[in-house]
Amino acid sequence: MILELKSNPTLKDFQNYVMQMKQERGFNTTDKFYECCLLAEECGEVISAVRKNSKSGSIGSGSVAGNVAEELADVFIYLCSLANMHDIDLEQAFREKEEKNKQRTWKRL
Ligand SMILES: [Mg+2]
After folding, report:
1. What is residue 19's DSSP assignment?
2. How close is the Cα of 107 to the center of ligand 1, in Å?
């Protein structure tokens, strides 16, 4: 089967793509805690990329600007993967959580 993300994908399509991609590449599909660590690592890479792209951040000599888009894509991949490992439909989870969030009172800064 050819690994290809269909055009106009749904969130479920992304989750299915990630599941197939991980199987094809022989990546971890069972160790949930390890996957959490990889997700956290990628979140750190987002922070690093944002810092390197911001004017206020300190950039070491020889350091190149981080690619925020790439790192956010990595986080999204691991988010899909972790959801897959827990049989979670991310769209459904998003909708249900937002319904809860709508009932909350939010303090404005
Ligand atoms: Mg990365």
Report:
1. H
2. 33
**Separation of CA 56 and ligand 1 centre (Å):** 22
Q: How far is the CA of 100 from the centre of ligand 1 (A)?
A: 31
CATH of the domain at 79: 1.10.287.1080
Q: Which domain holds residue 75?
A: 32-56+64-97
Q: What is the pLDDT of residue 66?
A: 73
**73 within a domain of the structure (yes/no):** yes
Q: What's the CA gap between 87 and 106, in Å, rounded?
A: 30
DSSP secondary structure letter of residue 7: S
| Its pTM surpasses 0.85 | yes
